[in-house]
Design goal:
The chain is of the alpha/beta class. The chain is built from nine helices and nine strands.
Length: about 260
């Protein structure tokens, strides 16, 4: 809570996943995947609460088992944003809702506070997110990694799975430029409650359906998205390889801590 503005984190957690079935419940690290995003959110300083929004009883039970707050949301929800909006519809006491995706186990609590602060400090902006400098060419060209370009006021101009800006002629020095030329978009959003409830009524745009990026609906309808910069980069878990790499990182941290 800051300046009488109340913020709240919702962690949407869908059961079905095409590339990694039941990923929210994977627990090779002794914790289900969903628990990591929940724990990060509870360590943030500004939110007054955290809840997981799910569509499945098994995830509901898993969250209850580790002591988290959880609500059931519609099985027909088309996106995580829709699940966050379902919670927002029941909480008129909250000004800012944060969407921390359940498959982002390494999200930083500091990043959660930062995206909330963007909306507190910029009352004319309805939505905020974060990005981080992108220095790896393989990641730059990976369509699973969403890139963003911004104007001089840090408002997003466009998000894409393609390389943006797209160099007419490549130079490796572009990856080390200061300030950075390329930015990776992080899966973290903050919305003002009224705008979040309005988002679901906005028609999809061809940009959104082509790139399969929901945030492009906001831009297409002329609403600004403030995109702050962080040096913290979190990695979403979308494939078995992603999860295996995450398990290795967790195990390595445990060994280093001994």
């Amino acid at each position: 809570m800051s300046n009488n503005i109340h913020s709240y984190v919702v962690v949407p957690a869908r059961y079905a996943s095409t590339r990694l079935p039941q990923k929210m419940l994977l627990n090779e690290t002794s914790k289900p995947l969903i628990q990591y995003a929940h724990e990060a959110a509870t360590k943030a300083q500004l939110p007054c609460g955290v809840t997981v929004a799910t569509d499945h009883e098994d995830i509901y039970a898993a969250v209850q088992a580790f002591g988290g707050q959880v609500v059931m949301t519609s099985a027909d929800a088309k996106s995580g944003t829709d699940r966050v909006a379902e919670v927002a519809a029941t909480r008129p006491d909250i000004d800012i809702f944060v969407n921390v995706q359940g498959d982002e186990p390494e999200m930083s609590p500091t990043a959660i506070d930062q995206v909330i602060r963007l909306l507190i400090d910029h009352p004319d902006v309805p939505m905020a997110t974060l990005c981080t400098p992108l220095r790896n060419r393989e990641q730059l060209e990976d369509t699973a990694c969403v890139k963003v370009v911004r104007d001089n006021n840090l408002r997003a101009l466009y998000f894409s799975r393609s390389v943006i800006p797209h160099p007419r002629q490549w130079s490796d020095e572009m990856l080390t430029a200061e300030p950075a030329l390329f930015y990776l978009h992080l899966g973290l959003y903050a919305y003002r409650r009224d705008f979040l409830l309005k988002m679901g009524t906005l028609p999809q745009s061809p940009l959104e359906t082509t790139e399969s990026l929901e945030q492009l609906r906001v831009i297409a309808h002329g609403y600004p998205i403030l995109c702050g910069t962080t040096e913290h980069s979190s990695t979403g878990i979308d494939t078995p390889e992603d999860y295996a790499a995450f398990v290795r990182r967790v195990n390595a941290e445990r060994v280093a801590a001994v």
